[in-house]
Amino acid sequence: MSDAVLSTAGLTRSFSQGGETIEVLRGVDFSIGAGEIVALLGPSGSGKSTLLQAVGLLEGGFGGSIRIGGVEVAQQDAAARTTTRRDQLGFVYQFHHLLPDFTALENVVLPQLVHGAERADADARANELLTTLGLGHRLTHKPSQLSGGEQQRVAVARALANRPALILADEPTGNLDEGTADVVLAELLRLVRQEGSAALIATHNERIAAKMDRVVRLHDGHLQ
Predict the structure, then answer these.
(1) How far apart, in whole angstroms, are the C-alpha atoms of residue 18 and residue 20?
(2) Where are the transmembrane segments (predicted)?
């Protein structure tokens, strides 16, 4: 495997509920190499989203080690976590979470401006990504004017806009019908490979998982 973009060691997470402690992650050890696309497979409620929240630095309360690009990030303060997320990670969720008052192009431009890009460069990058995803004729449309599949493709472009080392996707086609889901997933995988990013994609669907480079299964808090 290439140098690890993401690696965890002894990753744990537990919750208190009704006076009981529920262990969701029980010492997760795994790594993802540069350019590798890995399916995180497990039924609903198995902890896939919890694991993505951990490695995405979206929530605290985790034990163990998380290294992104060789840097230990598990104990970073809030400001450093924000910088790591901005510079190293891209996110695609089941629901697109696009900004409703902005066009498709603007939704992909904005994260680049936050990252410090010049407006002309951000426009060019957004145009390139959206055109590659077949949305070159929809650049000025707002989310409400786009189909579900088109909205999710804009979300894919947004996730890749800042050239992240790692894409984290949580059931990225779970809100789409099967035919549209297949198209969006194929575009996601193609573009991730084209960009040279690594990806961890959570799904409960064996058929979708089979399209990845490798499958890891979350069961009883451990990866198999």
Answers:
(1) 5
(2) none
